[in-house]
């Protein structure tokens, strides 16, 4: 994919990998001027702290699985005007940035899920299978 958008933060952040100038211009014209854009993002973990929580995605709609993610990250790249920029994030924003940057690499949350935690959204309240690590940090 060439771009993914995280709507759960304010302002929304769009991560974009651009390889063709014409496509870049068309995409940036389409995005809201209020949306923060990170072009060609490079993700760096800024601490060793991790947490396990359920994740979902429209790519695997109706399902969730536990994924362990770093709690603190930094994403560097370029803004919509081609200037270098950096976003520091922690907690849920860090989780979402990792999730969206994974998409740019062709990785889905199910590729990183804790085994035996994949379930339908209707079964989220069921206990985790014996031997699964607990949720949280």
UniProtKB/TrEMBL annotation:
Signal peptide: none annotated. It is found in: Plastid, Chloroplast. It catalyses: N-terminal N-formyl-L-methionyl-[peptide] + H2O = N-terminal L-methionyl-[peptide] + formate. The keyword Zinc does not apply. One of its GO terms (biological process) is translation. Removes the formyl group from the N-terminal Met of newly synthesized proteins. This is Peptide deformylase. The lineage of its organism: Eukaryota, Viridiplantae, Streptophyta, Embryophyta, Tracheophyta.
